[in-house]
Amino acid sequence: MTLCYGLVTSTQRITCYLLLRWSRVTRPGRANISGCCSREGRRCARVLQQSEKRSSTILSYAATLQSCTWLCGSSSFQMKTGLSSGPEFWRSCANTKTCSTGGTRFRPLSFEVPKPLFPVAGVPMLQHHIEACAKVPNMKEILLMGFYQPNEELNRFLLNAQQEFKISIRYLQEYAALGTGGGIYHFRDQIVSGSPEAFFVMNADVCSAFPLEEMLSFQKEHGEPNSFVILGTTANRKQSMNYGCIVENEETNEVLHYVEKPSTFVSDIINCGIYLFSPDIFQHIGGVFQKNQEEMLLEESTNGWHRAEAIRLEQDVFTALAGQGKLYVYKTLGFWSQIKSAGSAIYASRLYLNQYHKTHPERLATNKKGGPKISGNVYIHPTANIDPTATLGPNVSIGTGVTISAGVRVRESIVLHGANLQDHCCVLNSIVGWDSTVGKWARVEGTPSDPNPNDPLAKMDSETLFREGKLTPSITILGVCTVLLLSCKVCFIMTLLRNVCMFLIILVITEILCPQVVT
Amino acid sequence: MKALILVGGYGTRLRPLTLSVPKPLVEFCNKPILLHQVEALVTAGVDHVVLAVSYMSELLEREMKLQEQRLGITISLSHEKEPLGTAGPLALAQELLNVDNEPFFVLNSDVICDFPFRDLLQFHRRHGGEGTIVVTRVEEPSKYGVVVYEAESGRICRFVEKPQVFVSNKINAGIYIFNPRVLSRIQLRPTSVEKEIFPVMAEEQQLFAMELQGFWMDIGQPKDFLTGMCMYLQSLRQHSPDRLHTAPGFIGNVLVDPTAVIGENCSIGPNVVIGAGVVLEDGVRIKRCTVLCGSRLRSHCWLDSCIVGWSSSVGQWVRMENATVLGEDVIVNDELYLNGANVLPHKSINESVPEPRIIM
């Protein structure tokens, strides 16, 4: 909400206001309209009074805002999954996933699909989470929470996943971005129904080996049975400051201190964004909620956009829980990375493809007679049409219906569905968007943005698209429906693209040498 | 008749090619630069060519011995111990040039054109002056020293260095014919023929200009080498089109040595020269390039405006462009991108070169 407020056109403010009103209609007593007391806000309110909208219209306005926010990517989008499981000892345990994503960093890819559905190693990012959850014995249900307007793509994904993993999966849409803690608190009734003993909460934009069963046994062995567990991993000193830092008691693994993105070094154990809670956690989140409400009553000057429901699990809850014997950290040695920028999807893809050797060997392509030359880990969707003279890999994912012609080379790249790579073209360190065409002899090349391979603790830098007004050299991304093509005199296309990030639709690109965004 | 070719020094501007081979022997359109000139001179009736060199090269001497026999002429090397400019070598070679009181040709070794030696001799004899300069027309005369002359007689009035206002669009093409009397004007010391000798001759009304028909290029640097190549191929298209290669997959003017091997699904041209023993594997795309003897271009590579040095190898899916020059025996590994790289001989490249630079 606050970020929406930052967009300064008056129409934006009107829609924001409508959203508030709508939320008051649906949840009486929760929204604080009087807080909307800036001059523009009052003017907006008057405008609205003049043109009395019926609630149905208002709802559609709210919907507009959501999709608009999603497109602008300015809101901290939240998506949560809840799962329930219940082995013999704990009757049931629900599992919730928080998928907090910016979206802007994922441009131009996030224009087309919600980021959590972006394919990593051939399957939607979220499917890796769901697969891991489905493996946990007696997992009851998976809840996805988010601020996204549910769309066809999401529904289709949920339906398919339910059938494939034989588990109930539901999407719970937040009415506003509620923060990592606010979301699960808002839907607490849904989560605790069926009285689960424990539940997982995961961010959607992480890539991990998901040692969920290990976390469960760790919880049994350490502390009291209702303790909470954070999945932690070790980072290097410099990068640890970009994450939530955990100080532990080395003998008991109890969390002694928690701080989110400190400006000085605190600890090299970082928060992986994967938690195991018991329903007791709602008492603690509820405490924060109460406190927020009291503060809002006291503070007259509150600008009206702050809401008591917006609760950040990390800053508001963990910080307070640290050192109270309730919060523990389970340190994993398995792989872990955030998937913030589009470039990090390539790295995440490498990690998952590597894991497929153990978990899904059938997903890895092999050298066959009459098939393309494969080097390293490659995922090829069965519907893709690959010429036998092409060479693919390592770390390549080819999506549905992709056409790869003679003599094509693809390395360290993701090719999304419907893309067409024509003869002799060369695609390196790139993401080729849906239905893009890469012309003959074209070269599409990005700069690898992997963590330092010589430092086993190094993580992906949470890079931004731009730094000091310049596009940071990164993975090349061809956005939606990008067409690189034709009409050269001799009808050969010899395009060169380096570090390009393309934002949208039906472009004919000729030659781009330096990092830039093409719109 | 005699001719003096000002070969000069190490040809540093055409490095890295001239690190392996003396500049006169670098193949331009599948023939050493010097032979383009020598053969044209022989056709015009020259039987003694003097090469003014400032460094001795065994390779050059050996090659010239062979050419002496092949063409049935005398080729002498006049070696200057210190650089003598453009006029000094004439004084040094005086004894060789001043034997029979016949006019002699003088030319810069970097120049490529349809050499007009017969016309030049005729023109020179007709006007009776001491010397004739071949001039060529340029688009931007303000970059050069221009020649101002009378349109009808061709008598040169004056020279203007980098004119700020338009006075003429003709520049010195580096090809001259002189009577032996000119030699008496030159002393054995570093002298510039253009700056010190010509102005005096023009003042005495002894210097004439003849305009060159057709193309002209100074091919002393890689960029100009490629431009000159395009012009030469176009000239071939007009005068002897049967020397150019035509086949499916070939576009525009392409010159291919008969010993070269071309793979399937290649697209070659326009403006490509492929040397002896070169191998192009399947699916190669190449335009506006010279590939020198014995090189191999591997599958799916893409080259535009490049010179590939002798016995080099360009890997699969490599992209090279923007006046990239590979020296002798360079290996470019697979999937790299070279933009304006100058690669010294015997180098193996493992990393892309996104910005123009020299690879030591």
TrEMBL record, chain A:
Residues 374-446 form the Mannose-1-phosphate guanyltransferase C-terminal domain. Pfam families: GMPPB_C, NTP_transferase. The keyword Transmembrane applies. InterPro entries: GMPPB_C (IPR056729), Mannose-1P_guanyltransferase (IPR050486), NTP_transferase_dom (IPR005835), Nucleotide-diphossugar_trans (IPR029044). Residues 103-295 form the Nucleotidyl transferase domain. The keyword Transmembrane helix applies. Gene3D superfamilies: Hexapeptide repeat proteins, Spore Coat Polysaccharide Biosynthesis Protein SpsA, Chain A. Keywords: Membrane, Transmembrane, Transmembrane helix. The chain crosses the membrane at residues 475-493. Belongs to the transferase hexapeptide repeat family. This is Nucleotidyl transferase domain-containing protein. It comes from Gouania willdenowi. The gene is gmppaa.
Automatic annotation (TrEMBL), chain B:
Belongs to the transferase hexapeptide repeat family. Pathway: Nucleotide-sugar biosynthesis; GDP-alpha-D-mannose biosynthesis; GDP-alpha-D-mannose from alpha-D-mannose 1-phosphate (GTP route): step 1/1. This is mannose-1-phosphate guanylyltransferase. Residues 251-359 form the Mannose-1-phosphate guanyltransferase C-terminal domain. Signal peptide: none annotated. InterPro entries: GMPPB_C (IPR056729), GMPPB_N (IPR045233), Hexapep_transf_CS (IPR018357), Mannose-1P_guanyltransferase (IPR050486), NTP_transferase_dom (IPR005835), Nucleotide-diphossugar_trans (IPR029044). GO terms for molecular function: GTP binding; mannose-1-phosphate guanylyltransferase (GTP) activity. Keywords: GTP-binding, Nucleotide-binding, Nucleotidyltransferase, Transferase. PANTHER family: SUGAR-1-PHOSPHATE GUANYL TRANSFERASE (PTHR22572). It holds the Pfam family GMPPB_C. The keyword Transmembrane does not apply. Residues 2-234 form the Nucleotidyl transferase domain. Gene3D superfamilies: Hexapeptide repeat proteins, Spore Coat Polysaccharide Biosynthesis Protein SpsA, Chain A. Its EC number is 2.7.7.13. It comes from the Eukaryota. One of its GO terms (biological process) is GDP-mannose biosynthetic process.
